[in-house]
Amino acid sequence: xxxxxxxxxxxxxxxxxxxxxxxxxxxxxxxxxxxxxxxxxxxxxxxxxxxxxxxxxxxxxxxxxxxxxxxxxxxxxxxxxxxxxxxxxxxxxxxxxxxxxxxxxxxxxxxxxxxxxxxxxxxxxxxxxxxxxxxxxxxxxxxxxxxxxxxxxxxxxxxxxxxxxxxxxxxxxxxxxxxxxxxxxxxxxxxxxxxxxxxxxxxxxxxxxxxxxxxx
Length: 216
Hints:
Layout (H helix, E strand, L loop, with lengths): L5 E5 L5 E6 H7 L3 E9 L5 E6 L10 E2 L2 E3 L7 H13 L5 E12 L5 E12 L11 E7 L1 H10 L6 H50 L9
Parallel strand pairs: 3-8
Antiparallel strand pairs: 1-2, 3-6, 4-5, 4-9, 7-8
């Protein structure tokens, strides 16, 4: 038998009030703690994932880079980093963009009732998604994503549409900061590399032994 996954139950102020088994929590619609992640590359494109069709809900839909739940006693940021690597196969430094609350019932009888910490970070490596979790990765800017959602809303997970509808300005601002930081870091690396390349002939010259005077 697989390990039972426990979720953190909360009150309306996100204070922990206990825990519940994952499937029961989603059957009963209990309020619980969650996280969601948007990774963006240096060009400003968001990494989207297509959920495996066998997921317990929203299977086969496009969603943001990663989402999940912290375990009881686990910090939400730590859980987000853990799950990002488990599900998408990348690591990233994450920052909190905003917190959201949403509730939705699905056709299969399950529901979501979450208080979500939404994190952003820079995509610096190649995603290697777990095949049981993710079947495809696509890169879209937020404008491209908004257009795609407007054309085919049923192809995208409810929570992703919720973030775009209710938190787009905060999300855009957070993503711009990530892209700017990544650009600054890249510029710093180029500057250091140029400085090292310029200094290396001097170092070799300094290390060369002095020439012996010619014999008469």
